[in-house]
Write a structure and sequence with these properties.
The relative contact order is 0.15. The strands form 2 sheets. A two-stranded antiparallel ribbon has the order 1-2. The chain has a two-stranded antiparallel sheet with strand order 3-4. The chain is mainly alpha-helical. The protein has a single domain, classed as Up-down Bundle (Hypothetical Protein Ta1238, Chain: A), CATH 1.20.1200.10.
């Protein structure tokens, strides 16, 4: 599958990056902006996992999300199906898995009656930070979709993931009981 013997190739010294289909794009291309934001989101979720010390189910969920984000990056890095192999694509089942997790973690929490601040426990704050990075990836993806093909489930996945990270941040704040509420004009 992937074999990296040498990390530097010098092929990007001209300001371009190669995609999985063999095409090259400028490093500031919209597609590469999305891929970069997804990569940053994945790193932020890796950071979140450092704070998940006892909850094996949550750590497993986040590990699956990190793997999904690599799938999503591979999907974005293969803009054309005109290739000799079957490309990796985000699947509807991956979106559904996020929705199932969202419903499960959200069910025991009281509904919100105010906006909440990205505050509380260290785990919650890191989940909020990851959420904001995923939201940027989603915005970058919307920009890309205006001019170039994006897989049908890529935007859905990013949208559900940001929602899931929000719910998990509340979960990390004692099921939302320790959320820090926004007090307008305070």
């Amino acid at each position: 599958m992937v074999k990296l013997n040498k990390i530097y190739t010098r092929t990007g010294d001209d300001g371009t990056t190669g995609l999985a289909d063999g095409s090259r794009r400028s490093k500031d291309d919209d597609r590469l902006s999305v891929i970069g934001s997804v990569d940053e989101a994945n790193a932020a979720i890796g950071l979140v996992r450092l704070y998940v010390t006892q909850d094996l189910a949550l750590d497993g969920l986040l590990a699956r999300v990190q793997n999904d984000l690599f799938d999503l990056g591979a999907d974005l890095a293969t803009p054309s199906d005109d290739i000799s192999w079957t490309p990796i694509r985000i699947q509807a089942a991956q979106v559904t898995a996020l929705e199932i997790a969202l419903d499960s973690y959200n069910a025991p929490m009281a509904p919100l009656t105010s906006f909440i601040l990205p505050a509380g426990s260290p785990l919650s704050v890191h989940l909020h930070l990851a959420r904001t990075i995923v939201r940027r990836a989603e915005r970058d993806c919307v920009t890309l979709a205006r001019s170039d093909a994006v897989g049908p489930d890529v935007l859905k996945y990013l949208n559900r993931l940001s929602d899931l990270l929000f719910v998990l941040a509340r979960h990390a704040n004692d099921q939302g009981r320790a959320d820090v509420l926004w007090v307008p004009s305070k």
